Structures are given as structure tokens and as C-alpha cells.
Amino acid sequence: MRVVKVVQIPYEPTGDVLSLLESFRNMVNYCIHVGLEKNLTSRFKLQNEVYHQLTGFGLHSWYVLSAVEVATVILNNHRKAKRRQQNVSRVPRATKLMAKLGNQGYRVVDGKLRIPIRPREYFYVLLHKRAVQFLSDTSLKLGSVTLTVRMVSVAFSKTAEITKPESYVAYDTNEHSIDGANINGDGELTVESYDLSGVSETRHGYFERVRRVQSKYAKDRRVAGKIQRNWFTNQNNKVNTVLHQTSSAIVRQAKNNKQGIILEDLKHIRNTVNRKILVANNVGGRIQGISKHSKRLKRRLNSWSFRKLQNFIEYKALWEGVKVVKVSPRNTSRVCAVCGCVMQDPKARTLECCGTSRHVNACLNMLKIQDESLRFRLDRSAHVAVISPPNKAISRSGEATSLSTTEVAEPHRLLYIIWR
Prior knowledge:
The protein is about 40% helix and about 20% strand. The chain is an alpha+beta fold. The longest helix is centred in the middle third of the chain and has 36 residues, at about 220-255.
């Protein structure tokens, strides 16, 4: 399986580089205009139509080919959106300053990345330690380079083989932590937790600071915007650092233990928290949509980086050859993995029936979804689980009872007998 990774290199652009980015954006917009006017859907037809006009911008010919490629992607996305919804009237345009270059256009010279601007005219970007490590690895295939105003992104690819895991570790993604649980061959349950409370504290702290700046510079939006941009950059750097360290530790441990990773397939969280209900206005009696949840809860959950953390785990696991499985999170925290009881208090941290943490219980349910032969004893201690033998079941009193072949072949029926 081909996997791709990107390393980012910060730099300070010069006037020539900014001119390069603006010219590239104009080239892309010209290609989009020609593609819409002549209804060109093929990249090669568009290239033959605009190649000679694009060479008049004075950039290296490699940028001409990349501009056609970027414009083709934008046109295809626009046509797909138009097929999905018939009232798309906005003309697609490239708005951000950027440029793209194929792997044949850049070189590494004396620890610097040499990128062409015009024929026989280059600018250099100083490489950091991680970028040098990737660029010097001969097992990796170099990809394209994407330039923005502040960052140079270099893509790499390799062929990774997903190894068959000997066991699985399940992770329950929460707002302030990500909790994992796995069962070894002896039936012992291992629980681990990674603290993510620093992420929410960082976001809340910057939110309060930004709100004070907006109040202080309400009449000077230029100064307020400049301060906010710097603060948002610092906030994202701090949050991404925590998420990268956590995801790297999870993947590293799974690879060392020859385990697969089970994650929750979280969906529609923001749609749920932002949902509105129709209520009659107290003043005029008019029916209007009002948010069901408070502003504080919406701000917390809308800034929750659950998808980013899972994406970090997925691509790092794929790069290391670790298998990742996603399961439905429905009722994994509410239904007890031991006895099947349903939580009565949705805000409780532990289950009333067996005293298990709801985060650990969610991990156990995900492990059972992946392996239907996995069962847990009702009389186990807090950190011990067992796998039932193929011809035995554990009764509520803790005594082993034999089952017929038909009963063993039906996992759901076996669960019913254990509960009874």
C-alpha cells in the first residue's frame, strides 16, 4: 500500500517569492477561466490550450504544468458540487497565495532546499533536522513541493505493508483524555490514559485573551486582526504539538506490542451540538429556531480536536504498517460490557452495575465488537478480564457451565446465557 507523508519547513519569503506566488495564482485562475469557457474536462486538453499563454508569465516551465494540474482539480471539484446541488452559481477561483512544483524541480544543496523561480534563478530554504532526515532517506520517493506565504511542504511516499496484528488495543476518544484498553494472552486487562486537558485549557485561555483584545481594539480592527492572527498561530502550534506527541506514543506502543488499533467512528458531533429547535418567540409569538445547547457547550465541542487526533493516529499507523479499525461508537459507553446493563445516569463517570469506568467500558465494548469470542467474567476484579473457552461459559455465580455446539456458534445467544 502506498502511503504519503508531508514535512513542513517554515521560511521568510522575499519579494521575488511573493511575486512568484501571485503569478502562480493568476496562472491558475486563467486556466480555470479557459476551462469553464471552453468546457474542457481533460488536463491534457487544457494544457494544450493554455501552455503558450502561461509561458508569458515568465516563470519556470515546471510551474506551467503545475498550474494546469491545480486548475484541473478545482474545475473537477466545481463540477462535482454542481452535480450534487443544482444552484451552484459561484465561479471557482484560487484565492490564497500558493505555488506547486513537481519533484523534478527542486534540489538539496548544502543543507538548503533549492527552488527555482525563473530559468537559472533560484531561492533557498534552510532545512531543519527532520526535513534533512527525510530528504536523505533513499527508501522514500520524493513528491511535490507546495509553497505558501509562510511554509514549504515537501511530500514523501513509500510502500508500506500492513502487518497482521496479534491482538488489538481500543481507544475511547474523550474531550480531556484518550483512554485505551487491551487484553493480553493471560486475560489481564491493561488500561492506559493520555491526558489531553492541556488542549482544552489552551483553547479556552486564548479565547479569553482574544475576547479582551476585541473589546479593547473595537475601533481599530486592523490591530485586533494582527494580534489575533499571531495568537491563533501560537494556539494551533501548541495544540498540534500535544496531538502529535500523543498520536506518536499510541502508534509506537501498538507497533512494539504487535497490536492493531481500534478507534471510534465519530460522526455528526458538531451537527448535534449546533442543532436548533423551533420555539415560539416570547415577544411576537413568531416560530423561530433557537439553539438547544448553551454557547459554552457549543464553543467547547466545536473546538474539540477529535477528528484531527484520529487522523494523526491513522496516517502514522499506516506509515508504520499498523492496522487501524474503526467501529461504531453507539452505546459503547452506556451498555456495560460485563453484564449488559444500561447506564441510568448519562453524566456518571462509572457504571452503577459493575463499577467500571465508562471510558474503560467503551474500550471493552469496542474490543468485543472486533472479537465476538471475547467475554468478561461478572466476578472479575477491577483490572482482570478473561476469554471464555470455546465450550465453556461463565454463569452469574462464577461457575463454569458447558454449552452445546449450537450455543457456542451463536455469540449473541451466548451473551444472553451469561447474563441470565
